[in-house]
Amino acid sequence: MTRFIVLRDKSGNWQRPSVPTIAAIEPTRPGEAGQPDITMLDLDPRQLREASNDPSLLAMAPVVPTRLLAPEPLDDLRADELVPGWGQRAIGADRTHMTGKGARVAILDTGVATQHPCLEGVSLIAKDFTDLGIDDANGHGTHVAGTILGRDMGGIRIGVARGTDTLLVGKTLADTGHGTSDRFLAAVLWAQSQGADVIGFALSFDTAAHIEQLTAEGYPMTLATLAAVHANRGNLRIFESVLRMLDPATRPLMVGAVGNDCLRTISPEFETGPSAPAAARGVVSIGAVGPGDKGLVPAAFSNAGPTLVAPGVGIVSANASDGVRSMNGSSMALAHALGVAALLTQHLRADGQPVNAQSLSNALIRSATRDGLAPHLTPVDRGHGLVQAPRGPLD
């Protein structure tokens, strides 16, 4: 028996392709959308074939393991340049007139330390998808939350959007940093139903763990590898379809950390692209930068090909208890971008403009700059540029 994610459309608004296609599922009647109908079923090969006869079926894929994009060690930090708050200064958060007030930010992570002093005054709306409780014994989710909206700690500024008053917390990863793709999708739909303006995640589909799982079940290595890759692709397509099915007028912006899989300290050729699900169409992927000799450069670990970049090296934010700690990772860059998205949400509303995935992604990309980045960087390294906080009227 294998557990499958099953995406259906009982409304008839969306059509199932008659032949396999790379194209996303298109609405039968343009402009119509509906809440995606997702269920989880345990199926053997015979039941799988029977289920595929359902005319409302859009897609099916096996549930896959997920893993946290865990913080990375970095031994060559330039301590003289990496002082607390350097990330906020690099993105202009110390010069903006916006605070993020009114924005609803969601993080799908390891939970949060609900009593942390940096979250004082923040309305926490939480849902646990792990059956372990919402509290964060890992520390990653709390660090990310602190960078997004944390209040000052002992005179140290850690938060980008310190006026953001609502944080949606979906605990999709256990304290060990492991989870499953069905929990992730359920958390996405939960955050959307709670009125999130922007949803951020720092996890990836764990193909290596899936291969290990399948070989333990008796699969030959070659078949296990092919099955895991196929399942990864299927989950990515279901996620893309779910995003397409949400009402574009209210769909939240999805922002994902690009991944920490590169090994540039060993060789400049040891690079890879965005991890899934950050690689999905409709997701703004964020890479990490840190200081170089001629400006900010991609962190040695940060995956290539991001949509945008943000500070992700030596970032001081909340730890899992009541203090602060420094971390490195594309997760830390993601947190800066989510903070800027909160500032832009307030800015768009103040301008009388709608807030949704399209308007927020446009605002993020439009405000990005190459100033401060090393001049030799290409779009593969920096995407559209370094995220920037709003400073005046939107163009």
What's the CATH H-level superfamily name of the largest domain? Peptidase S8/S53 domain
**How much strand?**
15-25%
Total E-strand runs: 16
Tell me the Rg in angstroms. 20 Å
**Secondary-structure element order, N to C:** EEHEEHEEHEEHEEHHEEEEEEHHH
CATH C-level of the largest domain: Alpha Beta
Shape: globular
Question: What is the CATH fold-level name of the largest domain?
Answer: Rossmann fold
Structural class: alpha/beta
CATH architecture title of the largest domain: 3-Layer(aba) Sandwich
Total domain units: 2
> Helical segment tally?
9
Show unreliable segments: none
Largest sheet: 8 strands, mixed
| Alpha-carbon distance between the two ends | 55 Å
Mean pLDDT: 91
User: What share of residues is helical?
Assistant: 25-40%
Region (Disordered): 375-395
InterPro entries: Peptidase_S8/S53_dom (IPR000209), Peptidase_S8/S53_dom_sf (IPR036852), Peptidase_S8_Asp-AS (IPR023827), Peptidase_S8_His-AS (IPR022398), Peptidase_S8_subtilisin-like (IPR050131), Peptidase_S8_subtilisin-rel (IPR015500)
Organism: Tropicibacter oceani
Family: Belongs to the peptidase S8 family.
How would you characterize the overall build of this protein?
The chain is α/β, with parallel strands linked by helices and 395 residues long. The chain has helices spanning 45-51, 86-90, 140-149, 181-193, 207-216, 221-245, 330-350, 357-367, 379-382, and strands at 2-8, 37-43, 57-62, 65-68, 104-109, 123-128, 166-171, 178-180, 198-201, 203-205, 253-257, 283-292, 295-298, 308-311, 315-318, 324-327. It is globular, with a radius of gyration of 20 Å. The strands form four sheets. Strands 5, 6, 7, 9, 11, 12, 13 and 14 form an eight-stranded mixed beta sheet that branches. Helix 3 (140-149) packs parallel to helix 7 (330-350) and helix 5 packs across helix 6. It has two domains: 2-62, no CATH class; 65-382, 3-Layer(aba) Sandwich (Rossmann fold). It has nine helices and 16 strands. It starts with a strand and ends in a 13-residue tail after the last helix.
